[in-house]
Amino acid sequence: GQSLEQPSEVTAVEGAIVQINCTYQTSGFYGLSWYQQHDGGAPTFLSYNALDGLEETGRFSSFLSRSDSYGYLLLQELQMKDSASYFCATTKGSQGNLIFGKGTKLSVKP
Amino acid sequence: EAGVAQSPRYKIIEKRQSVAFWCNPISGHATLYWYQQILGQGPKLLIQFQNNGVVDDSQLPKDRFSAERLKGVDSTLKIQPAKLEDSAVYLCASSLGAGGTYEQYFGPGTRLTVT
Q1: What is the DSSP annotation of A45-90?
Q2: Per the CB < 8 Å rule, is B101 touching A31?
Q3: How does pLDDT run across A79-94, given as a tens digit for each residue?
Q4: C-beta of residue A103 within 8 angstroms of C-beta of residue A87
Q5: Closest A-chain CA to B101
Q6: Chain A neighbours among B 63-82 (CB < 8 Å)?
Q7: What is the pLDDT of residues B71-85, one digit of tens each?
Q8: What pLDDT shows up at residue A94?
């Protein structure tokens, strides 16, 4: 079966650091992706991890631990524009589709 | 580079009516996806095409939903007849290839309301 767990809501202040966790149960797991979606907007790709460890892209970093079936998205120097929903998504097999979690709604306060 | 185009952006229909959505992917993208996103949830894959062939339609309610990808480019998704629970945003996405390694580019979606 397939399941993903992530917090439904997170609130942080501008300039802070926030970590959004994702645990998964995916048979044939291949990789973990993160997508951002602003209200009324389309999901946009943030990162993809197939190997254990941390991947850094600007203010955003993503981590994967395959042995723990766990990953997280780390957002640094939060800005108001980072207020959005963040979805983790697993891939089953190298050619597999994305299976999305329910998303974490991040609210950044001044 | 033009993004993924979808139309219409909004559609309101009554239950038991039919509706069709259109998607034009990014040029050169072999893989095309249709997702259903219900409010407050993540996108759920309905169907995946590789060129003009279906790769995965395991979650497509085939008694009422159908999709095709003409000549491996544009795609249409049809619902007939619609039910109240079909109210959702229908997202089309495309990518160069299949699998998580390939970034999926999403269109703006079609918001469907079934009354």
Answers
A1: EEEEE-SSEEEEETTEEEEEETTTTEEEEEE-S--GGG-EEEEEEE
A2: yes
A3: 999 999 999 999 887 7
A4: yes
A5: A48
A6: none
A7: 889 999 999 999 999
A8: 77
